[in-house]
What does this fold into?
Amino acid sequence: MATLVTGGAGYVGGHVVVALHEAGRDVVIVDDFSNASTRTVDAIRGLTAGSLPVVEGDAGDQAAMERIFDRHRIDSVVHLAARKSVAESLERPLAYYRSNLVSTVCVAEVMIERGVDRFVFSSSAVVYGEPAETPVTEQTELGPPLNPYGASKAMSEQILRDAAASSGLRVALLRYFNPAGAHPSGMIGEDPRGTPANLVPRVMQVAAGRLDRVEVFGCDYDTSDGTAVRDYVHVVDLAQGHAAALDALERGEGPFEAEGTVAYNLGAGRGHTVLEVIAAASEAVGFAIPHAPVERRPGDAAAIWADCRRASAELGWTARRDLGAMMRDHWNWQRRHPDGYASQ
It folds into this structure.
């Protein structure tokens, strides 16, 4: 039996595939490669043993998904395939709703039809909107969303709650905070198409000479240095959280049986400002990274970080790598791939 990983050739997806292999699971990847490279798959294969079937396709294409389930012995799904840029979602909201909601519905429908009941969903901390208090727990009231990307994730969670209540589907909703870093081998890392929307890849592309400076969106927030605060989690820790969630689904323990769905925050459990991240990255690369303040970016919250005690207690998972390790590992990948996977 195998775990299907949608979006498995992406940044988080590639690390999840490696973590699942390390946990002894066979994996099938489906990815449309709209924001991923086939070279990622080559790198993943270099870090894993055994076969790794890869299907180029859209997780929102029901006929294609049915063929995958029929051809491979799928017994669980990790669903990561989604559009994920806050800024782009404000410019193209309908594309985000179409892509993110349709793919979630499609995957869930095919699973229910085939009697596959273990579903790990890639959600996001953006479902909390602008929280009144931090850190946020899984019981913190959601929203209202600050952007269409966040709305699409909150809607997807509701879709899966309704599906689980009516079908016996068991769903782990993994609310990511901010993934950063890369595999310590330097073989897989983050290579976004175009100008990076997220802070850490933008910082590292400046360090590699691909961009001139880091734009700091807003320096007048009510934080220690005026810049926004986020919880950064090492992508390897995040990936291992998926393996832990699948193990829990397999055991059928705790709230999975009682409620059908359960949410987990996956973060480091502390916040860092934008300027603190830039300082940590500068230390990792060995020189000061140029940056300059600009106006706030629409759709951004001022501060949010996670309370991860539920994941620790129920999954036995905790983030082990600190911000310095994230920056060192990210830079290790970036300096080996100054132009991304095109460097290979």
Notes: Residues 2-180+232-266 form a domain with the Rossmann fold fold (CATH 3.40.50.720).
